[in-house]
Amino acid sequence: MTERTDVLVVGAGVIGLTTAVHLAEQGLAVRLRGDQPPRETTSAAAMAVLSGPLLSDPADTASWEPYETVAAWHRLGLDTFAELAGLPGTGVRVTPGRWASRTEIADASWIHRLPGYEPCAPEEHPGFALAFRMTVPIVDMPVYFEHLTERLVAAGGALEIGSVASLDEAAAEAPVVVNCTGAYAQRLAGDPEVRPMRGQHVIVENPGVTDYFYEFSKGPKLTAFMPHGDRLVCGGTATRDDWSREPDPVQTEEIIARCAAVDPRIAGARVLGVETGLRAGRPRVRLEEETAGGARVIHNYGHAGAGVGLSWGCAHEVGRLVQRTGRVA
């Protein structure tokens, strides 16, 4: 651990780890603390396909932030992950796949402007009203977390496993605290707007799937699968106000059935594991500063299902806030 601490980042999911890496690589003395290691956080179970606001009707996302702010964060993420895809050992690759919706979209003109957009023939999406192909980065989260952790250590940062009872307690340890606690910010920051969105994914032995599939319909049950070598991550669910991290066997069967309806090879695939996590649902991302216990506290949470895609853009925004009044002592 470094003798001085410029910034204490709380929460070791993809938002906290990315923020800590960015600040440490800017020359700040950073400590990252999470009550779980990155590989055991909600982010480790993420589908991690770079969609985010770019796959949302601007009319639906205008209330998050100014839409262009969120879109700019995501564009920076797309550029960063595209660069990472060219490096070995990052777990990131750019690959084609299908996006589908079970409902028609009244004005789909914005979809045609998505990167690499190509419409699918009707026989390619039975049961879905709309489908198209798009080539974007996808991320193998366990491998990616190893990459980020190595970068944090190489930049002089420290990773600690432990809890923080309050923001005042964290403020006693560093002049700047960055709150990246996701759904748990409801308790730590006393934010009633944060609601847990429980997700469950099933990991199966890959039966030969090479392209991803992702349903972007609205609702608690979605169909998606992401190939990562000999593993296939199948999903998923989005259940509001459910804090349970216990796998649900019924949901496991439903997820496999939905995915097998798209690609029948999945029906007989051997199940390797079931992962659950709690996304931080919120009407808009909270990225702002306040004072607590004499320290500057920067909140960076509420990314819902877009945390991976927004992680680098929000990390850069935190970096600007940290350095706004000059180098921290």
TrEMBL record:
UniProt KW Plastid keyword: no
Obligatory cofactor(s): FAD
Protein family (similarity comment): Belongs to the DAMOX/DASOX family.
Keywords: FAD, Flavoprotein, Oxidoreductase
Signal peptide start and end residues: none
Highest taxon above the source species: Bacteria
E.C. code: 1.4.3.3
Reaction(s) catalysed (UniProt annotation): a D-alpha-amino acid + O2 + H2O = a 2-oxocarboxylate + H2O2 + NH4(+)
Species, as recorded: Sphaerisporangium rhizosphaerae
Protein name: D-amino-acid oxidase
Gene3D superfamilies assigned: D-Amino Acid Oxidase, subunit A, domain 2, NAD(P)-binding Rossmann-like Domain
Lineage: Bacteria, Bacillati, Actinomycetota, Actinomycetes, Streptosporangiales
GO molecular function: oxidoreductase activity
Domain FAD dependent oxidoreductase: 6-319
